[in-house]
Amino acid sequence: MTFRPLPPAWRRMALCALLGFMGLAFWAALQPRLAPSGLYGFDKLVHAGAFGLLTLLGILASAGRRAALLAVLAVFALGAAIEAAQSFVPGREASLSDLAGDAVGIAAGIATARLGHRAAERARRARHGIVTQPTAFASLPE
């Protein structure tokens, strides 16, 4: 699959959104009074959703495959840094299960980006009249 980056203006907007949300996530994670409710699992959904969004924005802001990989690694590093920093905040604690929730969100963000890329490729091919057959049917006689 070929990586097709967004136009530069869209990448800059995605980068600004990514940096803003990363800062907001780090700030919120270090607030003693913003701890999630006592519903077990709800905070994992929050982690997965937030890190899925951060991953998707990181991929959208990337100009190539290597940059996208670095963005994904940076989002995971942010999750690890948040968990390490939370061990020093009164009322908060570091948790490997939170980091696992972050990883699930990162995987969901990657999957969303891939599905979006495939849909955009299909739309581009349809606009240009490019018809491709699945490889399973390529050898069948017409």
UniProtKB/TrEMBL annotation:
Domain VanZ-like: from-to ranges = 33-115
Entries under InterPro entries matching the protein: VanZ-like
Listed transmembrane segments: 44-61, 68-87, 99-117
Q: Which UniProt keywords apply?
A: Membrane, Transmembrane, Transmembrane helix
Q: Which NCBIfam families match?
A: vanZ_1
Descriptive protein name: VanZ family protein
